[in-house]
Design goal:
This protein is of the alpha+beta class and about 475 residues long. The chain contains 10 helices and 21 strands.
């Protein structure tokens, strides 16, 4: 089926990632004819004068060198490939996968019921699935030279910038430093192990404002693949949309260290961290490659086939600056993490919930001592209406767990505030949440449910453990030469 025949057929393939229309982006070849769009990230499909009937996938969110890849020799083949793969996402991303990864993507992302209906309509027009779609795609892509296409000046300048981006580190800058004078590099080349993990400090940088430390954590690809597979994570995963318990458990098991504190000792004097930034390198998804991280790995000669997390830590001078840092010591310590426990519903006073501590293994019993519906009468707001009803839960825990190491929370979110009809559109609203701190005179702890516009009929609670999951490590680093 030609493109003209497809346009006249009335087929709707939006459920499998091919929608009519689309607009040109900075990386769209000059003179291209846009055939359709995927509906996400500006991805669109087109032909170009220099390549004839070949169908090109244009992906503006990719790195400057990876925006354009061929996905079919012509439109009839494009439809056959779409029928074989079930969605244009497989075609658009195929250039970066091995055959095993391509097959896994198809297996783990079958068409939706709406997609199946669209594909069935395509079959009814006499279109047949492409045999061996992966080999077809990679044979086509292996012989493709993107240099034959014409590009906008903006895109050519972006490609040139990517190739010539200088390496510099400043106190207030990002991974490729900006915002101040570049620091003087102090080679460190120090590997160390912390909690069984592999870490590396390649260099420090002496800046007018303080010392910057580049700190890497290395994770092998197999470990990261296993983790992402267990939790079904992709670059599109919306962590905020995950159920709280699943999100907390996934974050607690993440191969990269998520939370730690850092201090730097210079000639025995401690400097506190002023600020920092971080980024990750995941060769699992080359289309999501971070240009600055690639530059950092190449600068330090690190293997881009591994997974890396880079922390750039800035420590501010306090008092008189030393003329020379004779010795440096980086002190890292763990921060508190939230580990969710079992959930429960409290129907009456005297009910108990038994659980085990995730670190000590000790068995504890929570006893419900009070269940009280309450009404929080906050001051009137002329523009917004806020939820006011909640349930207060009084409880005890035996054997006791320190207040700062344990809490109980509502599993459900609060009702959002509602704008009043007459409220000015530029008037911002706030949020409402209540917390009880400490114990009452009877030794009870208290937890407040989420706030609602109507009294909650039933609350599902969850216990949470607040755990410092890693110890402290001191890493001796070379001084200034």
């Amino acid at each position: 089926m030609t493109y003209e025949a497809f346009r006249g057929s009335g087929l709707d393939l939006s459920a499998v990632g091919f929608m009519p229309g689309g607009e040109a982006y900075f990386c769209t070849p000059v003179g291209a004819a846009i055939l359709g769009r995927a509906g996400v990230d500006g991805i669109h499909f087109c032909t170009a004068p220099e390549t004839g009937d070949m169908i090109l996938a244009v992906s503006p969110a990719n790195g400057a060198e990876d925006c354009i890849h061929p996905v079919a020799r012509d439109f009839p083949d494009f439809l056959r490939l779409l029928l074989a793969c079930g969605d244009t996402a497989a075609l658009e991303q195929s250039w970066m996968w091995s055959e095993e990864q391509f097959a896994a993507f198809l297996r783990e992302n079958p068409p939706t019921p709406e997609g199946e209906a669209a594909l069935a309509a395509l079959r009814s027009q006499g279109v047949t699935p492409m045999e061996e779609p992966y080999r077809y795609l990679h044979a086509l892509q292996a012989g493709f030279d993107p240099g034959v296409l014409r590009y906008s000046r903006e895109y050519r300048e972006l490609q040139q910038e990517t190739e010539e981006l200088p390496w510099r580190v400043s106190f207030h800058g990002g991974l490729i430093g900006h915002g101040g004078r570049a620091g003087k590099a102090i080679p460190a080349d120090t590997w160390f192990t912390w909690e069984g993990e592999t870490w590396y400090v390649p260099a420090l940088y002496r800046c007018p404002e303080g010392i910057v430390v580049d700190l890497f954590q290395r994770v092998d690809v197999e470990t990261m693949w296993a983790y992402c597979g267990k939790w079904k994570l992709t670059p599109e995963t919306d962590w905020d949309a995950m159920p709280e318990e699943r999100r907390c458990q996934a974050q607690a098991e993440h191969p990269f260290c998520q939370d730690f504190r850092a201090m730097l000792a210079v000639n025995g004097r401690g400097l506190r961290q002023r600020h920092g930034c971080s980024s990750v390198w995941l060769p699992l998804w080359p289309d999501r490659e971070d240009r600055d991280m690639r530059a950092a790995l190449q600068h330090y000669g690190l293997d881009t086939g591994d997974c890396w997390q880079l922390h750039r830590l800035s420590f501010e001078w306090t008092g008189e600056k030393p003329r020379k840092g004779k010795d440096f010591a980086l002190i890292l310590s763990g921060e508190e993490t939230d580990v969710p426990g079992p959930s429960f519903q409290a129907e009456r006073v005297g009910e108990t919930v038994t659980f085990r501590h995730p670190v000590t293994g000790a068995e504890h019993t929570l006893t419900v001592r009070s269940i009280e519906p309450r009404d929080y009468d906050r001051p009137e707001d002329p523009g917004w209406e806020y939820p006011r009803y909640f349930t207060a839960l009084g409880y005890t825990v035996e054997p006791d767990i320190p207040q700062e190491a344990f809490s109980v929370r509502d599993c459900a979110p609060a009702d959002p505030a509602r704008r009043k009809p007459a409220a000015p559109k530029d008037q911002l609203g706030g949020g409402t949440a209540l917390f009880f701190i400490g114990r009452d005179e009877e030794g009870r702890r208290w937890a407040a449910s989420s706030m609602h516009f109507a009294p909650p009929e039933r609350v599902t609670w969850r216990v949470h453990f607040h755990i410092v999951s890693r110890g402290e490590v001191t890493v001796e680093l070379p001084g200034e030469p």
